[in-house]
């Protein structure tokens, strides 16, 4: 009798496994929020939820290995196509622009490159609990993948304040909006 029960359970498990293969299912994403050291070690990027309902992911430069130019001035976003942003310091600016969750559990959208003032398609996902994969593409043909490492310490010069506050990074206007406050219902008298 025990043998028949085990065989039945094994057959049931095998049938369930086979029936689930081939179906497109949404993978639960591992939230990429946190501070990440870029592969080349030149910057730390803070990823956090953004957008009116916090369903997107935005990223900010919160630390740079070399934040000053040869004149001792902060590096500026001088190649930005928006003239109003060309004088902003690179430290604290937003470079990951509202990535959206995909059915595969990755976050897709655009990343801004201050070195040439252009935006590129990007996809990111957690590879391991302390590793983030970031795949950037030019025209969907030329792609490169980097591995970023999560950091928990704070380096001298790192921005640690909340986004938009003193000592924190600054969100671009389109991602700084917060959801409208919920009005409390009046108590019936």
Mean pLDDT: 81
Helix coverage percent: 10-25%
Number of strands: 8
Shape: globular
What is the spatial order of strands in the main beta sheet?
Answer: 1-2-3-4-5-6-7-8
Please write the string of helix (H) and strand (E) elements: HEEEEEEEEH
Alpha-carbon distance between the termini? 68 Å
Strand content: 25-35%
* Topology-level CATH name: Lipocalin
Largest sheet: 8 strands, antiparallel, barrel
If classified by CATH, what would the architecture be? Beta Barrel
Domain count: 1
- The Rg value, from CA coordinates, equals 22 Å
Return residue spans where pLDDT drops below 50 for at least 5 consecutive residues: 1-28, 178-182
Sheet/helix structural class = mainly beta
Number of helical segments? Answer: 2
């Amino acid at each position: 009798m025990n043998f028949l029960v085990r065989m039945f359970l094994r057959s049931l498990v095998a049938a369930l496994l086979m029936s689930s293969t081939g179906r497109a299912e949404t993978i639960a994403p591992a939230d990429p929020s946190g501070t990440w050291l870029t592969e080349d070690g030149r910057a730390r990027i803070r990823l956090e939820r953004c957008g009116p309902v916090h369903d997107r992911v935005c990223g900010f430069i919160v630390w740079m290995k070399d934040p000053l130019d040869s004149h001792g001035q902060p590096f500026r976003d001088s190649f930005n196509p928006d003239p109003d942003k060309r004088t902003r310091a690179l430290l604290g600016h937003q470079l990951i622009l509202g990535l959206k969750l995909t059915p595969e559990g990755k976050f897709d959208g655009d990343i801004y490159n201050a070195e040439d003032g252009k935006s590129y398609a990007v996809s990111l996902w957690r590879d391991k609990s302390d590793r983030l994969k970031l795949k950037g593409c030019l025209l969907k043909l030329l792609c490169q993948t980097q591995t970023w490492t999560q950091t928990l310490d704070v380096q001298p010069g790192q921005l640690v304040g909340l986004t938009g506050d003193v000592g924190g990074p600054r969100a671009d206007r389109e991602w700084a909006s917060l959801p409208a406050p919920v009005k409390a219902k009046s108590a019936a008298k």
